[in-house]
Design a protein that fits this description.
Blueprint: E1 6-10, H1 16-25, E2 30-33, H2 48-57, E3 61-64, H3 66-69, E4 79-80, E5 83-84, H4 86-89, H5 93-106, E6 111-115, H6 124-135, E7 140-143, E8 149-151, H7 152-161, H8 174-189
Parallel strand pairs: 1-6, 1-7, 2-3, 2-6
Antiparallel strand pairs: 4-5, 7-8
């Protein structure tokens, strides 16, 4: 049996055959797509209809879950200074309902969360979705593109390492440091609202 309750992967620019092999090597039987917009202009084999058909062809179910677990909230109140606020998003009823639905799928399938970014801690699937699943006691393995599977706890250690000693002997405890590391990384990589360009000659310049 797998030591993980579920997996995660970022498709990036991986060829379709290699992507399928990574999932099959982990014995994945269902993909939960957590992209808010489940399409890819540059890599069309990862657009929703094409991807679902390819996965179904190798016996892997596909479910789109970006409506509840996506990283681009439609509610303006879930942005802080124009950046998606993962901590606020995690408190929303829709997000919690998405987690509940995901756990129902996990109970009957070997699930892999899928988004676009290659590196787990550059993506909301890790910084938002997997983090909260881990808090519920689930074990997550991040499938890396070299075929290895990194435990979520090891990803968190790499996230902490980005901050170095973060204060040495006087640093906050590990939990506080990890919370701060999550917050800083989310601010760096989360979706940003587009600010409309003002027309020249308007009263505001």
């Amino acid at each position: 049996m797998s030591p993980f309750d579920l997996f995660s992967i970022g498709h990036s620019n991986v060829p379709a055959a290699r992507f399928a092999a990574l999932l099959q090597d982990a014995a994945v039987t269902a993909v939960a797509d957590v992209r808010s917009i489940p399409n890819s202009r540059w890599f069309p084999w990862f657009s929703q209809e094409t991807l679902a058909a390819q996965l179904n062809g190798i016996g892997i179910a596909y479910t789109a879950m970006g409506d509840t677990l996506g990283g681009r909230p439609r509610d303006d109140s879930l942005y802080r200074d124009g950046v998606a606020d993962y901590e606020a998003m995690a408190k929303q009823p829709e997000f919690r309902a998405g987690h509940d639905r995901l756990q129902e799928i996990i109970a009957r399938s070997c699930v892999c969360l899928m988004c676009a970014e290659r590196e787990p801690f550059d993506c909301h699937r890790c910084l938002l979705v997997a983090r909260r699943l881990a808090e519920r006691g689930l074990t997550i393995g991040h499938i890396l593109h070299d075929g290895t599977v990194e435990p979520h706890a090891a990803t968190e250690q790499r996230l902490l390492a980005l901050d170095g000693d973060a204060g040495g002997l006087f640093a906050a405890g590990q939990d506080e440091r990890l919370t701060a590391a999550y917050r800083r990384q989310a601010r760096a990589v989360a979706f940003r609202q587009k600010i409309p360009m003002r027309r020249a000659g308007t009263e505001n310049g």
